[in-house]
Amino acid sequence: MFPDSPNPLSVEAALDPELTRWMWLVKWLLAIPHYFTLILLQVAFVPVTVIAFFGIIGTGRYPRPLFDFNVGVIRWSTRVSYYSSVVLGTDSYPPFTLKDVPDYPIRVDVTYPERLSRGLVLVKWLLVVPQLLVTMLLVTSGWTATGTWPTTVRSPRGSSVCSPSSPW
């Protein structure tokens, strides 16, 4: 854990001052081994989280090995995203590890919760429902980034399904 952070989640990032101009063209290719590994880790993340859910209900504590695994997956995917897709903030190849790497330009840490409320675990997941509804609405509505509706929606064959002159 970062020593001066009062929050349970800490993210510390430093942009590399000497980024190469051409490397962004191939970083996504270099990260393919990470993507395959992260797919497997994300598949494992789901059942581990479900097992942790029942562990918290039963004991009131997050099982430490499951917590470390989940935080490790979050760390790894953050490092790969920082390197290859989202930020392109470093040319340092991300390490293949779930552990914290102090000398890598981005670090993620989560404070281990000593005690958790058994009752809140049953209710907290409901807080994600409004967020999912808004996301679903935005993704499926056809609303563009400019705040307007598209003028024409086309079918996969290229014919116009809906045009401004036709409301249906």
Question: How do the helices and strands line up, and which of them pair or pack?
Answer:
Elements: E1 9-13, H1 27-30, H2 32-59, H3 64-84, E2 106-110, H4 118-124, H5 128-141, E3 153-154, E4 160-162
Q: Keywords for this structure?
A:
9% strand, mainly alpha
Task: Please give a structural write-up.
There is one protein chain. By secondary structure, the protein is mostly helical. It has a domain at 28-124. 44% of the residues lie in helices and 9% in strands. The protein is built from 5 helices and 4 strands. The protein has helices spanning 27-30, 32-59, 64-84, 118-124, 128-141, and strands at residues 9-13, 106-110, 153-154, 160-162. It has a two-stranded antiparallel sheet with strand order 1-2. A hairpin with a 5-residue loop joins strand 3 and strand 4. Helix 2 packs antiparallel against helix 3. The longest helix is centred in the first third of the chain and has 28 residues, at 32-59. It is globular.
- Computed over alpha carbons, the radius of gyration is 21 Å
Strand content: 5-15%
Q: Order of helices and strands, N to C?
A: EHHHEHHEE
| Multimeric status of the protein | single chain
Number of helices: 5
Q: What percentage of residues falls in helices of 4 or more residues?
A: 40-55%
Provide a brief overview of the structure.
InterPro entries: DUF4389 (IPR025498). This protein has 168 residues and is mainly α.
